[in-house]
Amino acid sequence: MAKRIQPQSLTSLPASPGEDRRARAIKYSIAMGARTLCVIACIIARDSWVLVLIFGIGAVALPYFAVVVANVGANSGRQATVVRPVAVVPILEAPREPSGGK
Fold it and tell me: Does any domain span residue 83?
């Protein structure tokens, strides 16, 4: 009996590249906004070296974490099972010419 292939479910498909790119851009923008606030806070809190140190570390470290978080993507932990056309349609070989005489 032939193996039946289940149709692809829409809920198991990954997000489209455009949606994934938009989500990563939003995450990155939020992190860069927080970095901007850290830089502004460093300028405002210049009298307290502890606050300047804390906000300075945030301003320096946030770009690294923003890039890492943005590049993870929305579907990195979930694998979608996609049925390939090769698995659906069998590949037929062309008949071979008989070797030998006429």
Answer: no
* Residue 77 structure tokens: 């932990």
pLDDT of residue 33: 94
Dihedral, CA of residue 82, residue 84, residue 87 and residue 93, to nearest 10: -170
Q: Indicate whether 12 pLDDT > 90.
A: no
What total of structural domains would you count in the chain?
A: 1
- Whole domain around residue 26: which residue ranges? 21-71
pTM of the model: 0.57
Helix (H, G, I), strand (E, B) or coil at 53: helix
Are 36 and 50 a contacting pair, CB within 8 Å? no
Q: Are residues 67 and 27 in contact, defined by beta-carbon separation less than 8 angstroms?
A: no
Residues 6+ apart with CB under 8 A from 63: 31, 32, 35
Is 9 within the bounds of a domain? no
Which residue matches tokens 């030998």? 100
